[in-house]
Every structure is written in structure tokens, then in C-alpha cells.
Design a protein that fits this description.
alpha+beta; four-stranded mixed sheet; 14 strands; three-stranded antiparallel sheet
């Protein structure tokens, strides 16, 4: 409520006013089946749009070209719009996790980080894939392999009763074992729902257990200045025995490595 509403109520009642900071956010953590259905539709819009935009990345588009086409196609598939400012980051731009698309051309030898989501009936989706165009630096291929291993391990760790901090640690340990700990510069994930970032937070030292019905992302990434970045992200529903993955776009490197046209 606003300060004016608070002052009005305080003068018209003898009841004690009690702060409720965080109560609504906590109640929103567990989603109903109806909420999950909306998020599943949002994820499906994202998957379909991305599948239709893969081919264009072989033809030297700009980052903005890809962003605009993704957002147009998500709407065609039923989305109300994008969940957030779509990220398309190619080459060295990929080293900035929240890069804004520019007129930079997607070239052979580049990685391309695409972080995209759709909004459907007020509910968001969130997904990231990293494509490799032509022959890339072997270091970039290693980064992709490590992030994919980390992300798959993180997905396998998600289930009710496990803490968000535990999931973060699983992902972070694999990246650290590969000697890339200092390249993982953000949290492993976050809750998604009516907002694109909400509770629970999947990051270090979060000790509260995950609950069935929560919807979270698992999105480890590594970023090397001057070369680029790799991030792989899925949106999942926490269950008692594991998780259900809502975002279904391919993430095997055999599907993400694209041959450029001449």
C-alpha cells in the first residue's frame, strides 16, 4: 500500500499495523498447475521461435537482426511479447552476460549467446543457448563442453528438499575443476513467474530447501574477455523426485555448431 493509504488506515482503526515485507513474494514461489501451464506455453513459444531463427545465423546477420526476428516470431506463436530485453551477443560481446544487441555482424569463428524468453498471460519463460559458427577457437569449444556438463549436473541435482545453494555448488564445482572458477561471474539461477527474476534465488549459501511447484532456471556460464562467452539455461519445475524441463530447444553441440554460408 502507499504511504497515504497507510496513514488513512492508521487514523481510522485501533488495530496494530504489522509489516508484511516478503510475504507475497514467498507465497508466489510455488506455482499452481494453471500458472505452470502458462509458463509451459511461454516456453513453447520461445522454443518455436528460436528453431525458426537458427538458419539465419549462418548468413551473417547482425545481433539486432536476430533479436528482432526472434521477438517477431515469438509473437506469431502466441506470445504477448518478450519476457525481457532479448540478448544476442556474438564474438567478444558474449563476454558481457547482459549485452544489448548491436549492429555487430555474426561471423564465422564466433560464439553467439542467445538469452530469450516469452510472456504469455502475465507469465514468463527464460532460456539461453550458445551457438558456435564455423570453426571456433579450441578454448571456446572447451568452454562450451564444460558449461554443458555443469548445466546437466545442475539439472540432475534439482529436486524438492535440496537447497538452492546445493544446486549452485554442483554447477560451480564442475566449472572450478576445469580451471574456470573465475570465469563464472553470476548466480546459477533464479525463480521465474509473474516476474522474470523472483524467489527462490539459486546461488551460493542459499540454505532454504527447494519445494515442489517452484519454477527456477539453471544457467551456469563462463566468460572470457576478448573471446566471448558460453551460457546454457533451462527453465524447470521442481518436483519431489527431480524436475520437469519446460524449455526444450536443442543444446547438444552437434546441433549448436552451425556451418556459415560463403
Amino acid at each position: 500500500m502507499t504511504q497515504a493509504q497507510f496513514e488513512t488506515l492508521r487514523t481510522q482503526t485501533t488495530a496494530t499495523m504489522v509489516p508484511t515485507v516478503g510475504v507475497v513474494q514467498h507465497l508466489r514461489r510455488r506455482k499452481t498447475e494453471a500458472e505452470i501451464a502458462r509458463m509451459r506455453r511461454a516456453a513453447a513459444c520461445t522454443d518455436a521461435a528460436l528453431a525458426e531463427c537458427v538458419e539465419m545465423m549462418r548468413h551473417r546477420p547482425t545481433e539486432r537482426d536476430v533479436r528482432d526476428e526472434l521477438e517477431y516470431r515469438m509473437r506469431r506463436h502466441g506470445a504477448d511479447g518478450p519476457s525481457y530485453d532479448t540478448i544476442v551477443a556474438t564474438g567478444p560481446n558474449g563476454a558481457r552476460p547482459h549485452h544489448r544487441p548491436t549492429s555487430t555482424v555474426i561471423e564465422s569463428g564466433h560464439s553467439v549467446v542467445i538469452d530469450v524468453g516469452a510472456l504469455v498471460d502475465g507469465y514468463h519463460s527464460d532460456m539461453t543457448r550458445t551457438y558456435l559458427i564455423g570453426e571456433v577457437d579450441p578454448v571456446m569449444r572447451q568452454m562450451h563442453d564444460v558449461v554443458r556438463e555443469s548445466q546437466l549436473a545442475g539439472l540432475a541435482a534439482v529436486r524438492a528438499g535440496v537447497t538452492a545453494g546445493d544446486v549452485d555448488k554442483v554447477c560451480r564445482d564442475i566449472i572450478a575443476d576445469a580451471g574456470m572458477a573465475d570465469l563464472f561471474i553470476h548466480s546459477t539461477g533464479h525463480g521465474v513467474g509473474l516476474q522474470i527474476h523472483e524467489q527462490p534465488w539459486v546461488r551460493t549459501a542459499m540454505s532454504e530447501p527447494l519445494q515442489a511447484g517452484e519454477v527456477v532456471t539453471v544457467e551456469p556460464g563462463v566468460y572470457r574477455e576478448g573471446l566471448g562467452g558460453v551460457r546454457i539455461e533451462d527453465l524447470v519445475v521442481v518436483t519431489e523426485s527431480g524436475c520437469n524441463i519446460l524449455t526444450e530447444s536443442e543444446k547438444d553441440l552437434s546441433c549448436l555448431q552451425l556451418a556459415p554460408t560463403n
